[in-house]
Amino acid sequence: MKTYWKYLFAAAVVIASAAILARAYTYRYRTAGTISVTGLGETEFASDLIVLRGSIDVENYDAAEAYRSIERDKRRVEEFLTSRGIAAESISFAMLSIEKNYQSIYNDKGSYQGQRFSGYAIRQHFTVESADIDTVEKVAMEISSLIADGISIDVYDPSYYYTKLDDLKLDLIGKAAADARSRAEELAENAGAKIGDLALSRTGVFQITGANSDEEFSAGGSFNVSSRNKKARITVRAEYKIK
Q: Please, are residues 54 and 153 in contact by the beta-carbon 8 Å criterion?
């Protein structure tokens, strides 16, 4: 009986080994029967939307007076923007940010004694969003002149966007896929073969950088908003069967 089981076990090992070899052969066949390439789609384009952000600050011991001051400065900023060609509907103001200020107190020996209330600090954020990029860029260079009128204002570098980004991405994917097929056809022809059906296709990450910059690509995708003129690129990895 023991001898019988020994032969059964040996037969099972032979069958399992044959299955493993068959799978290995099939894998080699499938690998040898395909060709993998990477296609590239890229283009340069100009942004069609600009966003300018800034803030106005007011400090006063009296809350009511601080509020009146921030409202006055807000109107002056809005008048400045509209007088230079910015449409009123392109300007928006966020909710006021109000904080209480405190001043640290020390005695003659430099020991900390606590703090006392020193007034209110109110900040008003504003945003200009427009398709008129040239006008907003000019205003961004001039708006800091309001400081000379006693307005405490901070303005940040403009951000540039493209409102048809989804269409652009689809177009680039098509270009990258066509480039991948062209590369596969060339490689197959050089090897005396022809490509067949598409077996596998993967899209890489979408990269947007400045048009004339040395920005590095990111593994998660780059999205430049600091440059008006940009470059977009995407890759497609394709695997074709070989006839």
A: yes
What's this model's pTM, rounded to 2 decimal places? 0.79
Q: Say which residue the tokens 């059964």 belong to.
A: 8
| Largest distance between two CA atoms of the chain | 107
Strands, E assignment, the chain? 34-46, 49-60, 91-93, 97-106, 112-130, 152-155, 159-161, 195-203, 207-210, 229-242
- State how far the Cα of 205 lies from the Cα of 201, in Å rounded to an integer: 13
Distance CA 59, CA 70 (A): 9
Mean pLDDT, residues 81-89 taken together: 97
Write out pLDDT tens, residues 130-147: 999 999 999 999 999 999
Cα 13 to Cα 21: distance, rounded to the nearest angstrom? 12
Sorted by where each begins, the domain ranges of the chain are 1-26, 33-46+163-242, 51-159
The secondary structure of residue 216, as a DSSP letter, is: P
Domain 51-159 has CATH 3.40.190.10: no
**CATH hierarchy code of domain 33-46+163-242:** 3.30.110.170
Fold equal for 33-46+163-242 and 51-159: no
